[in-house]
Amino acid sequence: MSQPPRRISPPPRLRGAVIVPGDKSISHRAAILNAVAAGPATVDNFLPADDCLATLDCLRALGVSWSLERSSDESARLSLTGRGIGGLRESADTLDARNSGTTMRLLAGLLAGRPFLSIITGDESLRSRPMGRVILPLREMGAQISGRDGDSLAPLTIRGGPLRGIHHRSPVASAQVKSALLLAGLQAEGETTLEEPVRSRDHTERMLRAMGADLREEGNALRLSPLRQDLTPLNLRVPGDFSGAAFWLVAAALHPDAEISLSDVGVNPTRTGLLDALREMGADITVSSERLQGGEPVADLVVRSSRLEGTVVEGPAVVRLIDEVPALAVAAALARGRTVIRDVGELRVKESDRILATAQELRRLGARVEERPDGLIIEGVGALRGAPCDSRGDHRLAMALAVAGMVAQGETELSGAEAIRISYPGFWQHLAKLESG
Ligand code: S3P
Prior knowledge:
alpha/beta; 4-stranded mixed β-sheet; 27% strand; binds shikimate-3-phosphate
């Protein structure tokens, strides 16, 4: 049932410290990989948001026992008991990945090698997203996997069985596809080698190595040997989600009276393209105390009110900010001059068509945004004005519009704000804290 719109008025200030939620991508992987490792593991700062809970529910249906101890809306301690990859059991029912592409695609790769039947479905948005990109290479590995609409859409039916390693050159840079094939490759006979046009986020690779997998980089390719023994459980503390921090980076840079400190944020270079783009636009952001946490780089960030100029974002760089384009578009809407964002056609198959939705919704707030087949052209305007707008069920669009509302004149009425639960359940509490900071 849809909830009443959320009303947002520009706060007089945005000041204080925020601990952003645990990284969504890393939380999924920590759960899935530890679920098939040999023994118990504890994952601190696990993100207990809708997407990661979908992964946990699927794992429970597959016979994995786990418990979650919440310390806040967006931080929990996950305790899991892996019984090795052979410990997974056929689920008595359909697995529901809900809104989560990561859940569906990673589990498809894992379950392709398990000797039982799995059916994975999802919500309306996920059932319209492309699945051929995992179905086809998994079939090449010998998997019996099919999907609706000529094997292009979920629900997916997987009759797991023996797999063989392949050499796969992916036409898209997708960490979900790469991770699905790595999970299948662990169970295959022979090596699996993967190439992607640009290096996508590498959290799965880092975690697999830390858990004892034989995974090497050879030039542009990844080479994985099948598991000789089960993965070693990995206790870790999940870094803060850069994709959650992104909204505060933009909000503070645009707001006239802002200084926000963000501690323990993941700064894996495959994820931080927005940091570079915002700095290029003139944002005042400092990064300090860079260190490694659970095999991932983390740092403390401080962002202050800034004057932004338009920029051009294109080519290989876009993979490093693909989830941040709605936030970047808000920054561009109020920057001086023109911003061009190209080569982001992938955004059309995210939780919503993010090119279309970002353009249409930001225009309602007075932004000058032109939609292109593979991107956006944005002419900065002096001010945005509050207006009704709609997240279209997309969590990242909801938060981008919320940020636009924080720096627009007058009141913004955001419908579908509840989508934020997908990745950042405490978003509004954090805003309230910064408003009174
Ligand atoms: C993710 C990979 C990216 C990203 C998504 C999370 C992951 O998707 O957009 O939000 O956790 O692997 P693609 O693999 O489809 O590019």
